Amino acid sequence: MAEVRNKQVVLRDYVSGFPKESDMNIVEGTTILKLPQGSNDVLLKNLYLSCDPYMRMLMTKVEGLDVFGTYTPGSPLTGYGVSKVLESGHPDYKKGDLVWGSTKWEEFSLVSPTQILFKIEHTDVPLSYYTGILGMPGMTAYAGFFEVGSPKKGENVFVSAASGAVGQLVGQFAKLTDCYVVGSAGSKEKVDLLKNKLGFDEAFNYKEESDLNATLKRYFPEGIDIYFENVGGKTLDAVLPNMRVFGRIPVCGMVSQYNLTQPEGVTNLANLIFKRIRMQGFIVGEFYHLYPKFLEFVLPHIRERKVVYVEDIAEGLENGPAALVGLYSGRNVGKQVVVVARD
């Protein structure tokens, strides 16, 4: 019965304002690589961990976030990850299987089989993709754009946080639907990425625009049919007057608001009435039944390089806190992944 080191990223205390690396501790613990007698749990070796903006909300003690499950000070963070099965008490999983789902930010995790979302069957693509394009962000982009956004050929699509894990895919899916697509991002490097690698028709750096309303009128003189909402706040307020009649706004995230003690108000909501706009929030977990259909759609595009995916890789669990905190200042370029182990 082998006792091994089990490095963990632990939340020190609930967070107020912007998170800092010091809000998390790297703890050197140990674990026994053996299932308890009679257990139907699954023992995992974690390989890749996903850094996602929603994780900030879980660092605060807030009512109403039961759908995610908030973090507990003194315990490891949890999130999406790619893992290898070391031992299983459940018939659906066996030693050596690769899986993705919810796991802890540590080297080895004992999880309930309900925390595993899918077994990984396609290994001709990078395993890290299952934290991104083939994992939760990919499903978020697919469900949010196609199921909630209901796109039609030739429509005008605006994507905020467009170079992020979800936004970069929404833009590419929109182009596959023959839509006109504009993205916003926070640096020249990201704007260049959107236009030159990801195939967006246009992109702009929102930090350089003093009047977002005028900017959107410049890029969308006929208005926006679909706004894929990732940031909220001032961007949402500027988008609303620029929406077309019967426009749709799938609400994926509002990252500009997560670190504020007092959220910003939105003043242009009356446009929802005048323009009969449908604005709908969604939780990706409600769409996981579509995962096989999603794989059928996206895997051929990946293999034919009709869809590309940009990752920002942080090596080592000890670099996890810096990688996660970097999301909220836009330090990452593309999907932020933490490598715990490569096999």
Give a structural overview.
There is one protein chain. The protein has 343 residues and is α/β, with parallel strands linked by helices. It has two domains: 3-132 and 310-339, Alpha-Beta Complex (Quinone Oxidoreductase, Chain A, domain 1); 136-285, NAD(P)-binding Rossmann-like Domain (Rossmann fold), CATH 3.40.50. 21% of the residues lie in helices and 28% in strands. It has eight helices and 15 strands. α1 crosses α2 (167-176). It is globular. The model has no long low-confidence stretch (mean pLDDT 95).
Q: Could you estimate the helical fraction of the residues in percent?
A: 10-25%
Give the mean pLDDT.
95
CATH fold topology of the largest domain: Quinone Oxidoreductase, Chain A, domain 1
Order of helices and strands: EEEEEEEHEHEHEHEHEHEHEHE
Radius of gyration: 20 Å
What's the CATH class label of the largest domain? Alpha Beta
CATH architecture of the largest domain: Alpha-Beta Complex
Total E-strand runs: 15
How would the global form be characterised?
A: globular
- The helix/strand class is alpha/beta
Number of domains: 2
Number of helices: 8
Spatial separation of the terminal alpha carbons: 21 Å
Largest sheet: 7 strands, mixed
- Sequence stretches where pLDDT stays below 50 over 5 or more residues: none
Q: Indicate the proportion of strand residues.
A: 25-35%
- CATH-wise, what's the superfamily of the largest domain? Medium-chain alcohol dehydrogenases, catalytic domain
Organism: Glycine max (Soybean)
Domain Enoyl reductase (ER): 42-338
GO molecular function: oxidoreductase activity, acting on the CH-CH group of donors, NAD or NADP as acceptor
Pfam family, one: ADH_zinc_N
